[in-house]
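Hey,

The postdoc asked me to send both predictions to you directly instead of through the lab channel. I've kept everything plain text so nothing gets mangled by the mail client. Protein one:
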Amino acid sequence: MAIRKDSLKGYETRMANPDTETRDLLILGGGLVGMTLALAAAHRGLSSHVIDRADPADLTREGFDDRATAISTASWRLFRNIGLADGLEKFACDIASIAVTDQNRPGRLDFTPEAHEGTLGRMFPNRRLRLALFEAAAAQPLIHWVPKAEIASRERGEFSASATLADGRTLKGRLMVAAEGRNSPTREEAGIAIAKWDYSHRAVIAGLSHSRPHGNVAWEIFYPAGPFALLPMRDDPDGTHRSSLVWTVSEADGAGVTKLSDRAFLAEVQKRMGDILGEVTGAGPRSSWPLGFHHTAKITDTRLALVGDAAHGIHPIAGQGLNLGLRDVGALVEVIADGMRIGLDPGDAQLLKRYENWRGLDSFMVALATDGLTRLFGVPGRTASAVRRLGMSAVQRTPLLKTFFMDEARGVSGDLPELLKA
């Protein structure tokens, strides 16, 4: 069920006179990345203020957000290590395999790990992730959570950072963390340069019901207009088979697709997916989101660190957006905790430099790869399609390449933070 306003009364009463101490972290933004950061920090004994403008009761209301998210193997380890996995497990749908095709033509590429390697990830409704995070945060004394708050001004000084709220309260932390998403006002105010462009695409999101079981397979069907993804979800209690659709369309077509009649929408979906999941029998509410790319020139400044979409925004082609942000979380918490153990301040320039070096290159390479895939599969024409399918067939026959791509999808390659390790 959603978090109701009355379920927060105990929390709000406890915090009626906000703690005036300077905490380790001042986290601006309490979404999926920001709240995970606060919980991961608390796991290592770090205190935080979390300021968010949204009402948690609205964010967890049925029907508010019908999106679903793929949580990679490494990100699931993070959730398990900070105590969230047990409460989330019953809502998970394993991704046992990923199938990739070019317009459903011959030359399919399959990624299926060995039995001992586990799954490629898990699918969760965003609402369930938020509920788990919010409930854990409300019970954690090291987190001072301030929802429904507008920030009037931000200050970063030699010894601390602060945010003054519209109601006059001022909250202080030793390190300010921007976790406000793609349009981060903290990043803009800091004057951090950013490279960005618009793909002129929109992602149309909807839940689907269908006649055939998905078999825990995630499908990525590439069309010139963009990928058409079918992501496995748990069956309904009555046995109805469910998947989440992420359909990339041109900006010009976005409004038209979301406004199609239910019958016309189902027909268009069926035409693009073929008989992969049998007959599409229904679709939930539709929403659409603009797609773009952005990457900052740096992810730190004086007593400031950027995490998640505040630092990098990528195309959802490989489902790595949130997972990239959760790697930021693990790295930042590890850097700060290690530094504090030897007496360094959370905002120490040496620690921020380590975080910058650790996360800057990895996030850039993932962003570059997703952008390249988007452009590669967006080239129209039969010749381009034939070349792509030839390349996929080559990868299909090369176990080492398949293992490399699967490790990237699972988030287990590279220099992982301790919280994202088994």
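Protein two:
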Amino acid sequence: MHPRNIYNKRLNFNALASEFPEFKKHTTLDLKGQVIMDFKNIEALRILSKILLKKDFNLDVHFPPNGLVPTIPLRLNYILFIEDLLKLTNHNKCVKGLDIGVGASCVYPLIAAKKNGWQMVGTDINAESLNCAQNNIKNNNLAHLIEVVKVKEETILEEVLKQNSVRYDFCMCNPPFFGNPNELCSQLKRKSNRSPPKNAFSAEMHEVITIGGEFTFVSKIIDESSEFQDRIRIYTSMLGIKRNVKLLLQKLHKIPAIKSAISTEFHQGNTTRFGIAWTFDDCIQLEQLPINSDKKEKCGKPYVYNIKPFVGNTEEVGKQFTNIFNDLQLKHTPVKTDNENVVVYDIIAHGDTWSHSRRKRRELAHSSKCQSKTFIKDAINNNKDSSRVNGEKSAKRKCDYVMETVKRVKTEENIFLACTLIIHISSELHIELVYVNGSGGKNACHQILQYFKNHLKF
């Protein structure tokens, strides 16, 4: 959870039940006399969100009976993320934001306006949702800061941005996550390696399902942002499915006009959501935002390898690892330590240069051999050998392509793997490789450690 989130500590249900009778009737006492609530009870969730908005933001918000019940800690996490992004813009004037898919509760604009005094425009395709949102704005006397606009389903940004020449500081979006009811049902089912959903599900279908799911929806925002560019200084969106983060970042990195793009995570209880942000403004360096600074501590156990007995010194160890780093074209930065028997490197890989390395060397050797006229002449007289020649030429082209790809990827911002190598030198050599991040995932970290095992000569 964001460090400034007021819900960082567990909610005091005892105090809430004492202050709000409407909440108390949805609670019970456990064996220790503590007040607990049933998160599977939709009405209890609805009341909890209502009283948190009232208690912490002085907002009176109505949620439609069958509509989406917003979890307030998550919504506040997203608002705080945008606050951090705006600090990078050096913009001290009135902030103007655009909420794509404002929904019936209008919760993001209400919190943003009440907490920060931001001017907000919310868009939606559903007339009933907009009517409810308008009533929530009116009931909280925030019409001077919040406007809601009905837009067509065919476009997302175009309709509202072409109405006037207003320049927005940011846009935000909590898109429908799923592409069809089957996807929704599969996500709601318990998976063997995960805890079951803690909260009851409550939402209208149009609030959680859209054609193509969140990937298609956010891809459309990206495409339209390329047309309007600096009309919005920072574009953002929330995501509910982790795999889409990588796919959408890849799409963003392919657009030359985009100056920077980042992702983050929103943690609240057992729920994790994801966020992405991008900008066309070269004065805004989104990478400077210190997000997920505790990522290393959350990476789990390191990959470990021991060589014993070990006879050697720090210089020999450093030389062998440096040679491997150079062979694999890994960016490696030594990290100072207080212990002379501990060597630490921060490692960044921009592509997979270690997989099947022995096979690649063999293919290159064979392809060189194919250049021999005698070899080619003998191969022509034998269909089987002829096929091998063609295969080796193809292999050479493949290897050349791999090497060119590695060179190209090194100039890009995409990180395939970032990890930390920790080497303890004593009577044995203890190697730890800690995964940090990167599109290659933890499997890439494991593969590099296996490469070390095969190539270290102690």
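Summary for protein two, as requested: The chain is about 40% helix and 20% strand.

Thanks,
C.
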